[in-house]
Design brief:
Radius of gyration: 42 Å
Number of helices: 25
Strand content: 5-15%
Strand order of the largest sheet: 6-5-4-3-7
C-alpha cells in the first residue's frame, strides 16, 4: 500500500476560500459495494501479507501524526490517510469475524476427536495435531486483527480531532477588516483598474490561438448561431397560448421546450466555443479563456433551468406555484444570484484572483458579500408566499440572522468563517431545493401512473390489466425507496457541505456495512435492506404470476373455476412464505432465531391470538375443501349474497343490496351454510297459485305445465333432474291451492324466472276464464244495545 504523507502549507497561512471536498462518494461506494457483496479492493492478498502491510502503514501514519499540528498541516492532506486507515479497520473486522468462525469450527472438531489416548490411531493423532496447529494460527491471527482494529480506531479518532482543530484554526483566522481595507484602497484608488488591465494584457500576450484557429472559431460561432435559430424554431410548441398541461411532468416538458427554444441561439455558440477551446488548447494547465467558456456555459445552463422551473416562456406557464408574478420575481433574484456567482468565481479564484492586490481583493469581496447576502435575504422572504414553501417564519428569521452574521464576519475580517457559514447555508439550501424538486417530479409521475391521467399512462395501466381505481402493484415500494434515496443523499450532502463528512461518514458507513448491536443481536442495515428488497421483488414476481400468468395456464386444465381460484390463492400464500424465508436468509437471520420467534408466537397464540389463527386455518380449509367459492350464492345466518373473495382471515360476501359483509372464516367452517351453487348452478323453484272452486282442475294442471315447459330456463328432460310437476296441495278456505315445481338452469335467475312465470299464469288464466278468488272472511256484526 502506498503511504500518503501530510502536505504542509507553504507559507503557514490559511487559505481565503473554503473548498468542498467530494469525499462522500467514498461512503456511497462502500454502501454500494456492501449491497452487491463486492470487495472494495480489486486485488486479493494473503492474510499474513495484508497484516504486515497494515502494521507498517499504521506505524508510518502514527509517526507522521505525532509531528503534525494545525499550523503545519492542511485538512485536505488527511483525507487519503483516513481512507486507508478506515479500510484497515473494515478489513480487521472482517478478519476478526473469519478467525472467530474458524476457531469455533476447529474447537468443535477437536471436541469430536475427544481426548488423546496412548493407543490412538495415527491418522487421528495426525488430524489432532493439524487442528491444534490451526487453532494456534487462528488465535495469533485473531489477536493481530484485534490489535489492528484498536490501533486503526485510535488513529482515526486522532485524525478526526486534528481535522477539527485545523478547521477551527482556519475559521478563527482574521484578515484586515473593512475600515482598513477602505483606507488602503483610498490611498490607491486606481489600483483595481491597473490590476485588471495588467491581467488582460498578460492574457493577450499569451496568444493562445493563431489566426487560422481564431478564424475557424468565428466561423463555427456564426454557424452555431444559425443552427440554434433553426432548432429553436423546430422546438417551439404548436399548442395555443393559454394551453395548460394536466400534470407537472407535461408542464415541465413544455417549459423545457419553450425555454430551450429561446436560449439555444446563445447557448449553442458558447458550448461550441468551449468545445473548440478544449480541443485547440491544452487541458493541463487549463487556460483562463477555457475556464471562462466553461463558466459561461454553466451559467447559461443554470439560467435556462431557472426559466424552466420558475419563469417559463409562453405558451408554457408557471406550474410549481399558482402565483405567476411572484414566481417570476423570485426567478429574477435567482438569476441575479447566479450572475453574482459567475463574477465571484473569477474575482476570488484562479489567475485573476492572483493578479489582484490584497486591498483590492478584500474590497471586491466585501462589495460582493453585501450584494449577495442582501439578495439572499430578499429571496428568503419571497419564499414565504409560495404554496410549496417549507420554511415557516421562525426558520426564516433564523436564516436571515445567520446570513447577517456571515456578512458581519466578512466585514470584520473573519472571512474564512464567513465563507464557511455562507457556503454551508447556500449548499444546504440548493441541495434541499433540488431534493424537493426531484421528489415532487417523481411523486407526480407515480400519482399519474396510479390515476391514469395521460394517454401513455392509460396504455401502461391497460398493459398491466389494471381496473380504473386499481393501484400499480409495487409502486408503493418504489415510492419508499425513492424517499430514502433522495433524503439519504441529501443528508450525506449536508454532512459534506458542513465539513462533517470525514468523521461522520466513517461512523455512518461503519454502522451501515458492519451493523450495530441491539442487546445480543447484531443488526446490519445493508443486509436488512437487501432482505427487504428481495422480499419486495419476490413478492411482486409471485403476485404477478398469480394474477396474470397462472390464470391463463389454468384455463387449459380440467379444473373448475373454484379449483383454479384455490390454486391461485395457495400459490400466492406459498410465494409469500418463500419470499419471507429468502428475505430472512439474506438478512442474516439464523434459523435458531426463527425458532425463538416461532416459540414466542406460539405463546402469543396461546394467550390472545387464537381467533386469528383459527380464522387463518379455516381459510386454508375453505381453499382446500372448497365448500364455498368466489361467486357462489350462499346463506349463512341472516346473511345472504354472493361470495366476493376468500381471504386469509375472513370472507367477503356481497348482499343483493350491494352491501359487503365480512364474515370470519371460522364461522363458515363451524356454522350452517347454504350454498345454492356448490356442485352445479341448477335449482328448483316453487310457485303457489289458488283458483276458484268452480274452476276446471284438469285445465289448470294443463295450463301450468304448458307454461313451465315453454319457459327457456326451465329444465324439461335432464339427467338427474325431475321434469316440471303440478301438485294439488289442499282445499283452501276460498280457493283450490296448486303448486308448480320445476328446476331451472341457473338458480341465480330464480326471481326473474318466478316473475316471468307469474306473468304468464295470470295472462293464461284470464284468457281461459279461470278465476283467482280473493280471500273470503265472514265478519259478524253484533249490536250491543239491542242485546241489552
Amino acid at each position: 500500500m502506498a503511504v500518503d504523507r501530510f502536505d504542509a502549507m507553504p507559507d503557514g497561512k490559511v487559505s481565503g476560500a473554503m473548498r468542498i471536498r467530494p469525499s462522500y462518494f467514498f461512503g456511497l461506494l462502500i454502501i454500494v459495494c456492501s449491497l452487491v457483496n463486492l470487495p472494495v479492493q480489486a486485488e486479493t492478498v494473503s492474510v499474513d501479507d495484508w497484516m504486515e502491510q497494515a502494521r507498517e502503514l499504521i506505524k508510518q501514519q502514527e509517526k507522521i501524526l505525532r509531528k503534525a499540528s494545525p499550523e503545519t498541516t492542511s485538512a485536505d492532506a488527511l483525507t487519503s490517510p483516513l481512507k486507508d486507515i478506515n479500510q484497515i479497520k473494515n478489513q480487521s473486522q472482517d478478519c476478526i469475524a473469519e478467525a472467530e468462525a474458524g476457531l469455533i469450527k476447529v474447537t468443535e472438531d477437536l471436541q469430536t476427536l475427544g481426548e488423546p489416548t496412548p493407543k490412538e490411531n495415527p491418522d487421528v493423532a495426525k488430524k489432532r495435531k493439524s487442528l491444534t496447529q490451526e487453532q494456534k494460527t487462528l488465535d495469533k491471527q485473531l489477536s493481530t486483527c484485534r490489535l489492528l482494529q484498536l490501533q486503526s480506531q485510535d488513529l482515526i479518532k486522532s485524525m478526526n480531532v486534528l481535522q477539527q482543530h485545523i478547521l477551527a484554526q482556519q475559521l478563527s483566522a482574521r484578515t484586515p477588516h473593512i475600515i482598513t481595507v477602505l483606507r488602503e484602497n483610498l490611498q490607491e484608488p486606481v489600483a483595481g483598474w491597473q490590476d485588471a488591465i495588467h491581467f488582460l494584457a498578460e492574457q493577450y500576450r499569451l496568444k493562445l490561438l493563431n489566426v487560422q484557429q481564431f478564424s475557424l472559431l468565428v466561423v463555427l460561432m456564426v454557424v452555431s448561431i444559425f443552427v440554434g435559430l433553426l432548432v429553436s424554431r423546430m422546438l417551439r410548441p404548436i399548442q395555443p397560448r393559454h394551453f395548460r398541461p394536466e400534470d407537472m411532468v407535461s408542464a415541465f416538458t413544455l417549459a423545457l421546450r419553450t425555454s430551450l427554444a429561446r436560449a439555444l441561439p446563445v447557448l449553442l455558440p458558447v458550448l461550441v466555443t468551449a468545445a473548440f477551446l478544449s480541443m485547440a488548447l491544452p487541458l493541463v494547465p487549463l487556460p483562463f479563456v477555457t475556464k471562462l467558456s466553461y463558466a459561461i456555459s454553466a451559467y447559461l445552463g443554470l439560467i435556462l433551468l431557472v426559466n424552466v422551473l420558475l419563469s417559463p416562456v409562453a405558451p408554457a406557464d408557471v406550474y410549481l406555484t399558482a402565483l405567476d408574478r411572484l414566481s417570476r420575481r423570485f426567478a429574477w433574484h435567482l438569476k441575479l444570484f447566479l450572475t453574482l456567482g459567475l463574477f465571484g468565481l473569477f474575482l476570488f479564484t484562479g489567475e485573476f484572483r492572483a493578479s489582484l492586490s490584497e486591498p483590492v481583493y478584500y474590497l471586491n469581496r466585501s462589495i460582493f458579500s453585501v450584494l449577495l447576502i442582501i439578495n439572499l435575504i430578499i429571496m428568503l422572504w419571497l419564499v414565504r408566499r409560495f404554496s410549496w414553501a417549507i420554511l415557516s417564519r421562525k426558520p426564516r428569521i433564523l436564516l436571515s440572522l445567520v446570513l447577517m452574521f456571515s456578512l458581519l464576519a466578512e466585514l470584520a475580517g473573519y472571512r474564512n468563517l464567513s465563507a464557511f457559514v455562507l457556503g454551508g447555508v447556500l449548499g444546504t439550501s440548493a441541495s434541499l431545493a433540488i431534493s424537493v424538486l426531484i421528489y415532487r417530479l417523481f411523486k407526480d409521475l407515480f400519482d399519474g401512473l396510479d390515476e391514469g391521467r395521460l394517454d401513455w399512462e392509460l396504455r401502461f395501466r391497460k398493459f398491466l390489466g389494471l381496473k380504473d381505481e386499481s393501484r400499480v402493484p409495487g409502486l408503493i415500494w418504489l415510492r419508499l425507496i425513492l424517499f430514502f434515496v433522495i433524503w439519504g443523499g441529501f443528508a450525506v450532502l449536508v454532512l459534506n457541505i458542513w465539513r462533517l463528512d470525514d468523521p461522520w461518514l466513517g461512523i455512518i458507513s461503519g454502522y451501515v456495512t458492519e451493523g450495530f448491536e441491539v442487546g445480543s443481536m447484531t443488526v446490519t442495515p445493508t443486509l436488512l435492506l437487501g432482505g427487504v428488497l428481495a422480499f419486495v421483488v419476490l413478492l411482486s414476481v409471485f403476485r404477478y404470476i398469480r394474477n396474470h400468468i397462472l390464470p391463463h395456464g389454468l384455463k387449459h386444465t380440467q379444473l373448475d373455476r373454484g379449483a383454479r381460484e384455490a390454486v391461485s390463492s395457495l400459490f400466492g400464500y406459498g410465494g409469500a412464505a418463500i419470499a419471507f424465508l429468502v428475505a430472512l436468509s439474506i438478512s442474516g437471520v439464523k434459523m435458531e432465531n426463527v425458532a425463538l420467534i416461532a416459540g414466542a408466537l406460539s405463546v402469543g397464540i396461546g394467550f390472545g391470538l387464537q381467533n386469528i389463527v383459527n380464522n387463518f386455518i379455516s381459510g386454508l380449509i375453505l381453499l382446500f375443501e372448497r365448500p364455498i367459492r368466489s361467486g357462489d350464492w350462499i346463506i349463512t345466518g341472516d346473511t345472504e349474497g354472493y361470495v366476493k373473495s376468500i381471504n386469509i382471515r375472513s370472507t367477503q360476501i356481497q348482499t343483493f343490496d350491494k352491501a359487503d359483509v365480512i364474515v370470519p372464516n371460522s364461522e363458515l367452517i363451524t356454522a350452517k351454510v347454504t350454498n345454492w351453487v356448490l356442485r352445479d348452478p341448477y335449482g328448483r323453484i316453487s310457485i303457489s297459485i289458488g283458483v276458484g272452486y268452480d274452476s276446471d282442475v284438469e285445465k289448470v294442471h294443463k295450463i301450468l305445465l304448458e307454461i313451465a315447459h315453454k319457459h327457456p330456463m326451465v329444465m324439461d328432460k335432464h339427467h338427474g333432474v325431475s321434469p316440471p310437476k303440478v301438485l294439488f296441495m289442499n282445499f283452501g278456505d276460498s280457493a283450490l291451492n296448486f303448486e308448480l315445481r320445476c328446476f331451472i338452469y341457473d338458480i341465480d335467475q330464480r326471481l326473474n324466472v318466478v316473475s316471468e312465470i307469474n306473468f304468464a299464469i295470470i295472462a293464461a288464466f284470464r284468457r281461459e276464464g279461470i278465476e283467482i278468488p280473493f280471500p273470503q272472511r265472514v265478519v259478524t256484526m253484533m249490536n250491543k244495545a239491542e242485546d241489552q
